Amino acid sequence: MNKKTLTRVLIGLIILTAVGFSIAYFVLKGEKPWLAFFVACCGGVLVFNFLISLFFVNKNFKK
Asked: Which UniProt keywords apply (predicted)?
């Protein structure tokens, strides 16, 4: 895989994860606020990990 493909895949994963966890947060917010907070934290961690991966992919392909 080349840099462009990996970048597109990671950006797609970031967007899908953020949208999915946002929807799950708003669905659970009224019924179980503690679970909604947990879901939001997990989504934030995943997005942060994808952003770090995106940084390392771009850094390694600058040769």
From this structure: Membrane, Transmembrane, Transmembrane helix
- Amino acid identity for residue 59 in this structure: K
Residue identified by tokens 């994808």 is: 50
pLDDT tens digits, 6-58: 889 989 999 999 999 999 999 999 989 999 999 999 999 999 999 999 888 88
Cβ contact 17:43 at 8 Å? yes
Q: CA-CA distance, 32 to 29, in Å (whole number)?
A: 6
Domain range annotation of the chain? 3-60
CB neighbour class for 5 (10 Å; exposed up to 12, middle 13-18, buried from 19): exposed
